[in-house]
Amino acid sequence: xxxxxxxxxxxxxxxxLHKCLDSLVNQSLEEIEIIxxxxxxxxxxxxxxxxxxxxxxxxxxxxDLKERQGPGGARNEGLNIASGQYIGFVDxxxxxxxxxxxxxxxxxxxxxxxxxxxxxxxxxxxxxxxSTTENTWGKLNIEKxxxxxAYPGFxxxxxxxxxxxxxxxxxFREKVTYEDMDFLPVVMLYLKSVYATDLLLYYYENNLHSxxxxxxxxxxxxxxxxALKALVxxxxxxxxxxxxxxxxxxxxxxxxxxxxxxxxxxxxDNEVNYSIYKELQEFFFKLVNHDYKNNEYxxxxxxxxxxxxxxxxxxxxxxxxxxxxx
Length: 326
Description:
By secondary structure, this protein is an alpha/beta fold. It has 13 helices and ten strands.
């Protein structure tokens, strides 16, 4: 019996692949399958993947996509053939402790938990974090579920029961970026129980050359808009939006805040104009068409990040006119 299926989408990751794959093929949990999906790489990634497939034929399943599907599409290919009791996702530029999936699987089965999370390190800033906090552990009630939807954390530090994803037809958006922004909150709707460990088991490289770290305006603005729109639409389709409006509003606000920051600090001066802020403002109010001033999650942000909630209710021309006068 396969206990954990580990799904790894790969696109042009030759620099990181050996370290990533070494950490997976040497897992202390023996009953695993490692599903590697080459997402039409143009570097040496496919050759490295084939090398590991040849060396570990009983552990590795290799899928070679001839058309780029994006991380979401690649993960969906893995989900279609995964047979494990639990599913784990690893990014190809990251690596894990060799006992990661044994630790998580043992915890998961000890309490029949639907999801188990672990501590991770952001290597670039040398910070540790655990997304699934203790106040959400155990059997879920509505308050715990609210917390998980508001703060879903990251896909790659968790294992999730496969039947949760398969039975509820939960899949990633394909050929897009930020494909996981709407994925995890939807998963949280179907979980009955969760747990976590403060063991540091996952190492997030925070690769500066990854798509989501790009400074391209379309990726940081248009793609995030599409992800937020998909998030709201999915919750409405599932008739869950009204029940979790506060949490979804916080997700929208948090990402909107980062989009405004991007425009302010990373765009060239000639691109910082009223129209782009107006577009963001109108987009926000299209998704959040209710009073959010008393949102409990926004209220918990520090003063600098709460500031955007107030700025969003004024005409950005006032700020820009002051800026251009300086």
